Amino acid sequence: MNLKKVVTFLFLLSFGLFFLVSFSGCGHKGSHISARRIILIGIDGMTSDGFQQAYTPYLDSLIMNGAVSLHTRSVMPTVSAPNWAAILTGAGPEQNGVTSNGWTANNNSIEPTICDDKGYFPSVFKLIKEKDPNNKTCMFYDWKGLGNLVNPDYIDKSVFTEGFGVSFEKAAPWIIENNPRFSFVYIDSPDDYGHKYGWGSEKYIERIEEIDSIIGQFIDALKKAGMHKDTYFVVVTDHGGKGKSHGGLSMDEIEVPWIISGPKIVKDRVIKQQNDVFNTASTILFLLDIRQPFEWIGRPPLEVFKQAGFTSNKYIPKPVPSVKSGIYSKAQLVEFSISQPNCDIHYSLNGTDPDLNSPIFKEPVILLQSVILRAAAFRKSSRSDISEIVFKRTMEVQSVDIKNKPSPEYYGLGAYSLINLKEGSSNFNDKEWIGFRGNNLDATLYLGKYKKEVKKITIGCFNDENSWIFLPESIEIFTSFNGNDFMKVGSLNTGQIKKNAKQGRNEIQINFPSPQIKYIRVVIKNLEYCPEGHPGEGEKCWLFVDEIMIE
What we know:
By secondary structure, this protein is α+β, with helices and mostly antiparallel strands. The chain has three domains: 269 residues, Alkaline Phosphatase, subunit A, CATH 3.40.720; 74 residues, Immunoglobulin-like; 152 residues, Sandwich (Jelly Rolls), CATH 2.60.120. It is elongated and about 90 Å long. The strands form seven sheets. Strands 4-3-5-1-6-7-2-8 form an eight-stranded mixed sheet, with helices on both faces. Strands 10, 13, 15, 16 and 17 form a five-stranded mixed sheet that branches. A five-stranded antiparallel sheet has the order 18-20-27-23-24. Helix content is 22%, strand content 27%.
């Protein structure tokens, strides 16, 4: 073979490989599973942490018969419509164009990369009906915005319901009677309870438990009809939450649980493969042996179809502590509970991840001083996610006086914001922060009638120069026994304050000698004016402070 023929052969071989690789991306190879029935259960706003804290025997039973990912990622923004669209279309906002909860096919700012004659990006419903028009599909839901995301022409039964749990009540008899190939049943809670009471609140956790009971009734109805064993269940949520909102950039908002259960799914496994919500639609098509369109970016997490291989981790819910992270003026006893028996809980008190060599929780742990407690449940070689308590101990302060009042726009709770045992969030507009425009903070704290030994102070300050909020120029600490004669015991300059600075909330710590005192005076100097080169150069800048913690 001469050189010209060798070159030609290598060129054709390279082109062939390029062709193969390029066009194999148009969809995944057939699974040959051809599931008889798939039911997608949508639970709006359920966090991984909330799910693990709740007692959920029915969802846990699906995991025992399948697999779970506790770190599946939502798409941005972390709000409902973009994420439910991703779940149903195998693509993100950049492809399907759904960017907000107000999206409709006739009201959008980003055109889909591909759409039908009514303006809809191809959904899982469309692909299933195109494969075989005899495949029945249905959708039962209780949030109206969900009905705007996919072309209804490909859904045999679409029912909007009102009232908690009604979507499952309506769906069960129709599914039993009509035996659809694909069903989507959605419940708007616990998102509403997150907004009302806070993500992770007691009522929020109780709501998840109520939803689990409703899902249990739904599954029991399918069992009685003989439709349970050959059904694949996929349980997914759209986003998490933080405080009383979502839509931000925190991991609490972007990471959600994802469950799959059915005949050919691995049993009792934790999915370690990276997973995203838009993989849901791809997984459904894979189960139905339908090739996905090139425009989809999702792919099924193949780990869940391996009977032996990627992971042997069993699912264990993480232990739930009786004490939450926060600021405390008194020692706390911590206990742990877990919904799964036959597990050992190991913990550490130095911020490291616990392992099998760490102490075993057998009796309440007392927290006397600031510490990071981490705990995990173990069953043989498998370990749960880690529970963490960031416990911050401070002396009780009887009263606080400040010379300069906070600016009216950011008054918070006034001086009380400095000692109310509550941290300001990543949003400087919340009531825990107090703001001073161009002025210093000069606060005197009264510790009580008995002398106390103090070794350090930690001050919460906000840093967001784009919002004209700067860290202090300096901090000075004075102490007194009688409230009149103060002695300077510690200080920090600009360089020391900014040494480990980060965006958002910063905790600035000052250590000093420990005299017997009753009063502490904290003087925090504002930078006063935005520096040269800043967009607000020469204008008064802001100083934001929340909690002053004393140890």
